[in-house]
Design brief:
It is found in: Cytoplasm. The protein is of the alpha/beta class and 365 residues long. Helices cover 45% and strands 16% of the residues. It has 14 helices and 12 strands. The strands form 3 sheets. Strands 4-3-5-6-7 form a 5-stranded parallel beta sheet, sandwiched between helices. The chain has a 5-stranded parallel beta sheet with strand order 9-8-10-11-12, with helices on both faces. Helix 2 packs parallel to helix 7 and helix 10 crosses helix 14. The longest helix has 20 residues. The protein starts with 7 loop residues before the first helix and ends in an 18-residue tail after the last helix. The structure holds 5-amino-5-deoxy-1-O-phosphono-D-mannitol.
Length: 365
């Protein structure tokens, strides 16, 4: 049921504060300010030399975001690849290693093939899945459920933010088990996680501004998305969402790669969506933005009040997000990114819930 919404995708975007909140209740002891996983980890986080992650599409971008968290918080090296590449690579895997799979449906053929390869190579298998009765869930040693509820829209929205939330909690659990963070750090991170649903609700209030922006974006032939650090996977996700449902060509790039090629594309017709909360990397991204502005590129900046004040240029539009700790900011910044794609596609009259050529779950290669 779509309720008051025009599309399942809109309903699912709006459900995010609630389902992320629900996911958090399953992974945190809110009173104690600690992570509490809803399963028994059958592997030893401390003994791991590496984590191997594979997934497809949006689930892959969730995994890519988690790489930053596992490496920063838990000091655990992460190798990540799209499942269709990993499955044929014959990658050597460490003895007693841990392989992590991320999938909404739990039925994606390439991801399942990677899981079976990992098993054959004697890896422990952990999967972050939304459908807990799925094949991937059944074939895993440990299942970390995402609790997003059924996702109907082909474009993943709430499953993505619930994957991110679950992965953030797993990274914190790994950090504690590996002695990489103090109890005070853990409590602070837990507080920041608890704040997410409220921040997401605030981000949803940006919809009218995004609707106006979408009219402009609908005229574009190509759109470039830029971000650094954890905003880089958000740039990839933003581009995928826009392509999937509006059919506008879009690309996501790490902001620092701009001058290694894509800057050649910049002209007055090219919208460039820059995702840049005011974090430790902000100044670097701001200087990339200035390079785009100097070449007449049309910048749409997604940042916070401080970033808006310190970006050093006048963007065509600035989406000002609420202030938050930067570490888990992608979980909130995903929302304007989804709304941009949604509003653009709706304005263009596209079938957002059933985009052409796509299936909700890709069970063939
Ligand atoms: O069910 P899965 O999470 O394994 O699906 C993976 C991708 O097919 C999926 O995320 C796809 O990219 C979505 N349509 C993105 O919106």
């Amino acid at each position: 049921e779509k309720g008051n919404h025009r599309h399942f995708m809109a309903k699912e975007i709006y459900e995010q504060p609630e389902v992320v909140g629900h996911t958090l209740t399953q992974y945190l002891d809110m009173v104690a300010g600690k992570v509490r996983l809803p399963f028994e980890a059958k592997f030893d986080w401390q003994a791991l030399s590496r984590l191997s992650v594979s997934a497809c599409g949006t689930a892959y971008y969730a995994g890519l975001t988690a790489k930053y968290w596992f490496e920063k918080l838990a000091r655990l090296p992460v190798e990540i690849d799209v499942a269709s590449e990993f499955r044929y690579r014959e990658a050597p895997l460490p003895k007693d290693g841990l392989a992590l799979f991320v999938s909404q449906s739990g039925e994606t053929a390439d991801t399942l093939a990677c899981l079976r390869y990992a098993r054959q190579e004697q890896q422990h298998v952990l999967s972050v899945v939304n459908v807990t009765t799925s094949t991937i869930a059944r074939e895993s040693d440990v299942v970390a459920p995402t609790l997003a509820g059924p996702e109907i829209g082909v474009a993943s929205t709430k499953a993505f933010t619930c994957q991110l939330t679950t992965l953030a909690c797993l990274a914190l659990a790994a950090a504690r088990a590996r002695g990489a963070i103090t109890a005070e750090d853990e409590a602070r991170h837990v507080q920041n996680l608890i704040a997410l649903p409220g921040l997401m609700a605030k981000a949803l209030e940006l919809e009218p501004q995004i609707e106006a922006l979408a009219r402009e974006l609908s005229k574009a032939r190509d759109v470039l998305y830029l971000g650094r650090g954890t905003s880089f996977p958000m740039a990839l996700e933003g581009a995928l969402k826009l392509k999937e449902i509006s059919y506008i060509h879009a690309e996501g790039y790490p902001a620092g790669e701009l001058k290694h090629g894509p800057i050649a594309l910049i002209d007055e017709a090219m919208p460039v969506i820059v995702i840049a909360p005011h974090d430790a990397l902000f100044e670097k991204t701001a200087s990339n933005m200035q390079e785009v502005a100097a070449r007449g590129g049309r910048i749409i900046l997604i940042t916070d009040a401080r970033g808006a004040a310190e970006c050093g240029i006048t963007p065509e539009a600035t989406i000002v997000m609420p202030d938050m700790d930067p570490l888990f900011a992608p979980i909130v910044y995903a929302l304007p990114i989804q709304m941009i794609a949604y509003q653009t596609a709706v304005f263009m009259g596209k079938d957002v819930d059933q985009p052409r050529n796509l299936a909700k779950s890709v069970t063939v290669e």
